[in-house]
Amino acid sequence: MPAETWWKNGIVYQIYPRSFQDSNGDGVGDLPGITSRLDYLVDLGIDAVWISPIYPSPMADFGYDVSDYCGVHPLFGTLADFDRLVAEVHRRGLKLILDFVPNHTSDQHPWFVESRSSRSNPKRDWYIWRDPRPDGSPPNNWVSNFGGSAWEFDEATGQYYYHAFLRQQPDLNWRNPELREAMYDVLRFWLDRGVDGFRVDVIWHLIKDAEFRDNPPNPAWHPERPEIESLLQVHSSDQEEVHEVIAEMRRVLDGYRDRVLIGEIYLPTERLVAYYGKDLSGAHLPFNFQLIQTAWNARAIAKLVDEYEAALPQGGWPNWVLGNHDQPRIAARVGAEQARVAAMLLLTLRGTPTMYYGDEIGIGRVEIPPDRVQDPWEKNEPGLGFNRDPERTPMQWDASRFAGFSTVEPWLPLAPGHERQNVAVLSADPGSILNLYRALIRLRRGTRALAIGDYQPIRTEGHVFGFLRSHGSERLAVFLNLSGEPIPVKLVSPCDGMRVKLSTFLDRVDERVGSNVALRPNEGLILG
Ligand code: NOJ
């Protein structure tokens, strides 16, 4: 697929390294494990692998608390294992994207150890230190994303430090130019080792209000929601100056050939698109999480796609994400039948799709017994239903005791039914969700209209969402039934007389449709 760069026409696949493949029998996935499974990814047909953090870390937040940006945690292997992974990825024509976590470090990072050692330490200003209010209370009302105050008092130096996440994750001060340079050196360290880009953790958090004003209360908040939502995050994130920082990161990447900058951003569409930056100087792909957040119905989805398409800046390339390690799995959210419709949606919309490991085998709901809870958020705010462990369970490769993931009990329980729901069994089942993913990816890769073509909504009603994708004379229509009822759809030009290219049930291929097509319950069709 020439003419377009890989991150536009390619498919990104996220791996949570702890849970993909254990190679040394400790119950935790690792880099050699990932390397050993690359042929599976080639066969699946994806283009780029994004791996969640693999750096040295005390693992308070499972690697999002980094204590050394330029190393590999022994749990995951060594730098030599990493270099081998890069080489093997590239040998197969794939790309490797690293997770870059610049908003905060671990409290064990040598920078923070220095910073907290005294008020006059040269690294003091690399973090965010503020005096208590006169009554000794925290400098403002900001709340941690994992609950409780976002400020931690340091007895020794008499100041509070700010942490948007755990208290073991102090926020870095991105207003400090030295810190910025140190972080750009980190980017260069990995770029020089051959990585093809970064997914930047909570990129919209990097700059905070210069005056640290209180966040206003959120009138819509309800105590069953996480505490972070009790305040509107107007001063603690999404500040105008963040775009200057992102443009600087982008310039570092632009010093290398063909690298991609992806930003993790949870904001409404109109704010999100600002992260393409002025004249597209920002993230190539500001992650678009709307398919994760939307109510799963045809009208809501049709509306959000139209609004997103309309909001994109000139030349800004769209992207879609269906799941990640922080969100309930798609099959848990919408059920096994609609998960197939969701797969078709993700892989036919205009824009780079990001898949999450295990969704292609339909991993759904997993109950985590209380004594096996790992997620620090669940430990901080138990019982609210925000435990992220269920979406982090091990990949299911075969029907063996530990699903081919490990030879011992894994760090998180396997999903129920893994004996039947695994790569080996589903590969052999012609109608499986795994084979649907393979067929969708093959079709997308082989069809310019799907990979890079234009998007045009088709007027549909009720539970059906339809759209056209076209490139030159190539034209495809997609009709998705978001309900469990059969629905007849009337077709007008140019869709009437088309043939079925793919059904989510993997049958009907080549069936010619007239001026009507009958969508079965939970069926998606691609016509062409
Ligand atoms: C977003 C990451 O995806 C999540 O897993 C992590 O807990 C927070 N950022 C803090 O780094």
Automatic annotation (TrEMBL):
<dbReference type="InterPro" id="IPR006047">
    <property type="entry name" value="GH13_cat_dom"/>
</dbReference>
<dbReference type="GO" id="GO:0004556">
    <property type="term" value="F:alpha-amylase activity"/>
</dbReference>
<dbReference type="GO" id="GO:0009313">
    <property type="term" value="P:oligosaccharide catabolic process"/>
</dbReference>
<feature type="compositionally biased region" description="Basic and acidic residues">
    <location>
        <begin position="372"/>
        <end position="381"/>
    </location>
</feature>
<feature type="region of interest" description="Disordered">
    <location>
        <begin position="372"/>
        <end position="391"/>
    </location>
</feature>
<dbReference type="Pfam" id="PF00128">
    <property type="entry name" value="Alpha-amylase"/>
</dbReference>
<comment type="similarity">
    <text>Belongs to the glycosyl hydrolase 13 family.</text>
</comment>
<keyword id="KW-0378">Hydrolase</keyword>
<dbReference type="InterPro" id="IPR045857">
    <property type="entry name" value="O16G_dom_2"/>
</dbReference>
<dbReference type="InterPro" id="IPR017853">
    <property type="entry name" value="GH"/>
</dbReference>
<feature type="domain" description="Glycosyl hydrolase family 13 catalytic">
    <location>
        <begin position="14"/>
        <end position="392"/>
    </location>
</feature>
<protein>
    <submittedName>
        <fullName>Alpha-amylase</fullName>
    </submittedName>
</protein>
<keyword id="KW-0326">Glycosidase</keyword>
